[in-house]
Amino acid sequence: MSIEALPDPAMTASRRPWLDLRAVWRWHFYAGLFCIPFIVWLSLTGALYLFKPQVEALIDRPYDTLTITGPWACAADQARAGVAAVPGGVLNAYELPKAPNAATRVIVGRGTEQFRVYVHPQTLAILKVVSEDDRLMRIIFRLHGELMMGDKGSFVVEMAASWAIVMILTGLYLWWPRQADGLAGVLYPRLGRGRRTFWRDLHAVAGLWVSFFALFLLLSGLPWSKNWGAYFKEIRQITGTAVVKQDWTTGRSGELAERLAMNGGAAGGDEHAGHHGHAPAGLTDYAPLDALAATVAPLNLAPPVLISPPRQPGGYWTAKSDAQNRPLRTDLTLSTDGQLLKRVDFSQRHWVDRMVGIGVAAHEGHLFGWLNQALGVFTALSLITLAVSSVVLWLRRRPAMALGAPPATRASRQPARAPLMFATLLVALGVFLPLLGASLIVVLAVERLVLRRLPAARDWLGLPA
Q1: Of 240, 269, 278, 337, whose CB has the highest number of CB atoms within 10 Å?
Q2: Tens-place pLDDT, residues 166-198
Q3: d(CA 436, CA 421)
Q4: Where are the transmembrane segments (predicted)?
Q5: Where are the beta strands (DSSP E) in 346-382?
Q6: What are the pLDDT digits (tens) for 108-128?
Q7: How far is CA 443 from its chain centroid?
Q8: What is the DSSP string of 36-72?
Q9: Do 122 and 269 lie in a common domain?
Q10: 401 is in which domain, residue-wise?
């Protein structure tokens, strides 16, 4: 063969599919490098939050085993005592007592704050006043969903979750058996083949078994986030599936706006602020509470059951089950004389709200009891195993003075089986997850237009010239 007949390496490289296995591997590496700290953090805090009922029951045990020697005070007097314990506060909700010897919980709002007041049902003594934001599991919730940074933290967590989805999908693509000899290394790790094979198999096999559960947790947590939650709400407005008030808040600012509206303030930016404000504290008549409690208690709604005053003067009282297993929730509309005017069970809600509610309940570990919690713990531990094994693999193969990303200059002999399908999936994810789509464009632009032109950065990252 003459020299002229030899293929030009540059032309061969240019004709090589851009989405080969090596390209997928690089994006898997980049996504993992960014996500690993967040994966570990979200796994730890999420695993703790799964046991919210048990932890809160333990903390509240002193207030659920009171010594009561006489008749209870009426519900209205209990509510007044609770509101009086928070100067300038208004009644947000009266919680039906959990047991005959349990303290009454009164939820009191003031501005953007919300307090839980524990009232002795006989003596009306104030046993405890705690801000909702200072309760242990609420702190865990905010650490998990927003890093205690409000909407900025929610933005960061949503970005990490979006790239974690890319990490999982590319990982499954790389895992897909091509030259497998049996199920070893595919469904279970191979032992006795050396440390490198063990860590590689542990990473791949753990990723396989946890992928479905991890994707479910990542997707079911999106409605809470500030950016995607607003995006989702806008889509519902466009498609005509929006409801007057959804059963979850989007971001810290949405939660604070909702509180402010409940407490009679002007909740700027909340489209429902105009009709959600409570009447001022002095105008609220607590007398109907006794008749309302007598009506609601026999219905045996899933606890906790909250009875709330009208959102505006002359309006109706409401009651609801605020159970974490959201398919058990029920909303009631009541007149001041205790008559049940309307009941809306979970099955009567819009199918979008039911879908999100089921996802949220499973995400929090309360859809099907202890097994749901066990699956959550399994997912968290598996994700931590993935993170640790990936770091070990990276450090073992990382060359000196370089990041250690899979090199892009070597031609892959195994092109992607369906590059168009995989590219379509990436585009669809970019549309479904706007933060991911925007960040993907930025990363590609910076890599091609900036980093490849800087020799030191290019060599450290392993990018082609």
Answers
A1: 278
A2: 888 888 877 776 555 566 656 666 776 667 777
A3: 18
A4: 27-51, 155-176, 202-224, 377-395, 420-446
A5: none
A6: 999 999 999 999 999 999 999
A7: 25
A8: HHHHHHHHHHHHHHTTHHHHHHHHTGGGSS----SPP
A9: yes
A10: 10-49+150-220+371-461
